[in-house]
Design brief:
225 residues, alpha/beta, six-stranded mixed beta sheet, four-stranded antiparallel beta sheet, 36% helix, globular
Amino acid sequence: MTDKKDTLVVKNLTHTYSDGQRKVEVLKNINVTFEPGRLYAIVGESGSGKTTLISLISALDKIQSGEVTYGGKDIRKIGAQAFRQHYVNVVFQAFNLIKYMTARENVEVGLDFSGHKGSGRERAYELLESVGITRDQADSLVQKLSGGQQQRVAIARCLAGEVPIIVADEPTGNLDEDTEGKILQIFRQIAASGKIVIVVTHSQKVASHADATVYHMKAGALSLK
């Protein structure tokens, strides 16, 4: 049985936006538990509410109603900045890398943010190697790398924080089919190392790679797939 301290729990999460004239309920009483050591998928079309859900899970947006807890503690009590620094990292479809830096330097930024002690340079090389980036590629400007290589760098930067939760928002949306499969394999390996990995996607094919429950998001409601 998984220890409570290792689980991410979403309870009765409801969220609304206002378009100026009316309120739109984008999340409707979401309840879900994520356990370490597993790769999860949340699949849904654009506008289904999945991006709002992961924004709240990642403390990128403020919770209006309901709660998100990690280790039994409300993330609002942990604090948004502290939660993002010590508990969760997000991999984005657009990579969000610093273009004028090398791959290694981008990962070192992640190490600095996490308060890493020791040789950031060597640790960055190790992390990049773990996702299939060679030393030569690590010392290249990220803008000179392929899309798949840039996504690997983005994943390595997330791993730099040594956080227990990795959230990936459409991580293969800009990649070809072969590269997509390789990136998903990396996420499976990360989950196997004991982390909670949540992949959010509109693609049923991508969702099929999850080795745990696949959730379907539609009109703000979450259901088992």
